[in-house]
Write a structure and sequence with these properties.
The chain is built from 9 helices and 7 strands, in the order ααβαβαββαβαβααβα. With 250 residues, it is of the alpha/beta class. The termini are far apart.
Length: 250
């Protein structure tokens, strides 16, 4: 009788429906260890469409995302000992532009990639060792929020909306254990695709909820607003378990 495999070394079990909780917690614990070992504890997150290309109709946003990521990285290196790191979804478009800008400044950047049938492949500008592959969207979104000290949303579609409004909902419901300043880059785009004032008029959000974000339209101005509103990154690099603001022990 051959010795059976240990359950956690049995691919057939790990990849089964019964093994799903193990796969989910692995997508939390593996990045937790890796980021802690890399000394990462604070990020500036860039959201935006995978379909925005440098030479496309929204090409200016690719270039400006790249420039803003470069400025953020240079500032981090000069004022924060490089502790504040650009983080993107790891794919093409705006995500690629953010990682590229960090690389141009000689700094590190993170890519939180997710396996999708189309569009989403890791870009070549993510720092080696800081590119992560996710299967579960909700675990990927946890990592966007967990280390974020600032968030910049460039024009995007369903995925960008999903990620952006997740953060805004956490802020609105005070589930974040710190304030995360949120900036919508490209006021003309955002005011066309989302009628925020109508949400207030219909009573589905409060007027003060509009203060959870602000619009920016130029890289230098966006950097200045980020600098004025962002909480300082931790003095000692540390990645701890995620917790919410409400409830004891959470």
């Amino acid at each position: 009788m051959p010795t059976p495999l240990l359950a956690y070394r049995d691919p057939q079990f790990i990849e089964s429906e019964d093994g799903r909780p193990i796969r989910i917690v692995s997508e939390y614990l593996a990045p937790l260890r890796s980021l802690r070992d890399a000394g990462v504890s604070a990020t500036v997150v860039f959201f935006g469409s995978a379909r925005v290309q440098a030479r496309g109709p929204l090409g200016r946003y690719y270039e400006e995302a790249c420039e803003l990521a470069r400025l953020v990285t240079e500032w981090s290196q000069k004022k924060c000992d490089g502790r504040l790191i650009v983080c993107s979804g790891g794919g093409p478009g705006i995500m690629e532009a953010a990682n590229r800008g960090a690389q141009l400044a000689g700094g590190r950047s993170i890519g939180l990639n997710i396996g999708l049938p189309h569009e989403q492949r890791p870009n070549r500008y993510v720092t080696e060792g800081l590119c992560y592959e996710f299967h579960y969207f909700f675990m990927r979104k946890l990592w966007f929020a967990h280390l974020a000290h600032g968030l910049i949303a460039f024009p995007g579609g369903f995925g960008t909306f999903d990620e952006l409004f997740e953060i805004l909902t956490l802020a609105q419901t005070r589930k974040l254990d710190r304030a995360i300043p949120v900036f919508l880059y490209g006021s003309a785009y955002w005011n066309e695709v989302v009628n925020f004032d109508a949400l207030v008029r219909h009573g589905t959000i409060a007027a003060e909820d509009l203060q959870l974000f602000e619009f920016v339209d130029e890289p230098q101005a966006a950097l200045a607003r980020l600098q004025s509103r962002m909480p300082p990154p931790p003095a000692e690099p540390r990645v701890a378990f995620a917790k919410s603001r409400c409830g004891p022990g959470t």
